[in-house]
């Protein structure tokens, strides 16, 4: 009973203290602060910056009005068109998820706050424009290179500067970014033996500080330790400088050269020279010195579709191997193009490969051709000055 009484007294004392020590509000100070906030909002102007543009989204960074409770976003399809309200954010970022890859869009933002129960708006930001982004690769495939590596290749995307590559261990799983390539191929190393991997890619570039990403390609799968999928028609290339060497006699033809498909190569040369002539350039001359290393590379890319040779060295070391002395050289690779017309068209539709073919400094060419047991053609071009 004593404990109950003491507790009751204490409770009454606390209640009594609350009753006789009320909190006093300064109404004038509150009104002054509200007026200052309203003024700051009305005269403010946020900064709206596009940070990412994908095939279906545009993401923005917004800042510039410290007193803001949030920001409202407006969009138009013409700079001087009608800007429609599309949403708001209480943070410094916003993502518009209702855009199309082929569309150009114009955006404005303004800050807002609630003052005395009413919404106060700032001035509009300057207009931010985002242009159409890139499409998706029409082809993608992957090929196992032994037990721990995979080569992924895909078709060129117009206006792409590079490509992001993503990998998953299940077809509908999470695809994690694994690297970027400036050409149309990528080698994924350090994989587990006997494991199936899934890949997809998308084009990338930067325009006026905004990162643009194309639509994701379809998914492709491959199992390490030798399994592969049907190859598609994708070329790859890289020009490089080659150290000057003392010239020697042309080597004895290899087995690759003795089985050389001269008709395929001759037609490729003819088509390439038509393109050069149309571009106002001199024709390339078929070089016997470049033919042997070109055929060697055609056989090698069956094992490793890359500018890195199966032994881990750069592609240009094949010139040293055949005692070819040049100061500038370039290489184009392709597989899956089973006619001369198709392979030249594929190279000409890819900016990097086209640059090699239309390089005014190049005078000579070697064309390698190799057909595997499945009838797939592997083709190479070696250029030199």
Quick gist of this model?
This protein is α+β, with helices and mostly antiparallel strands and 385 residues long. The chain has helices at residues 2-20, 27-43, 255-258, 262-278, 288-303, 317-321, 340-348, 351-357; strands spanning 47-53, 58-63, 70-76, 84-89, 93-96, 105-115, 118-121, 128-130, 140-145, 149-154, 162-168, 176-181, 185-188, 196-207, 210-213, 220-223, 234-241, 285-286, 328-335, 364-371, 377-384. It is built from eight helices and 21 strands.
If you had to describe this structure to a student in words, what would you say it looks like?
This protein is of the alpha+beta class and 385 residues long. The protein has 3 domains: 84 residues, Sandwich (Immunoglobulin-like); 87 residues, Sandwich (Immunoglobulin-like); 123 residues, Pathogenesis-related Protein p14a (3-Layer(aba) Sandwich), CATH 3.40.33.10. Strands 1, 2, 5, 11, 12, 14, 15 and 16 form an 8-stranded mixed β-sheet that branches. A hairpin with a 4-residue loop joins strand 1 and strand 2. It starts with a helix and ends with a strand. Pfam families: CAP. Keywords: Signal.
Radius of gyration (Å): 32 Å
Count the beta strands: 21
Helix/strand class:
alpha+beta
> Approximately what portion of the residues adopt beta-strand conformation?
25-35%
Average of the residue pLDDT scores: 81
Low-confidence region ranges: 1-21, 23-30, 226-234, 240-260
Task: Write the element-wise H/E pattern from the N-terminal end onward.
Answer: HHEEEEEEEEEEEEEEEEEHHEHHEHHEE
What is the percent of helical residues? 10-25%
**Overall outline:** elongated
Largest sheet features? 8 strands, mixed
Number of helices: 8
The named CATH superfamily of the largest domain? CAP
Please state the second-level CATH architecture of the largest domain. 3-Layer(aba) Sandwich
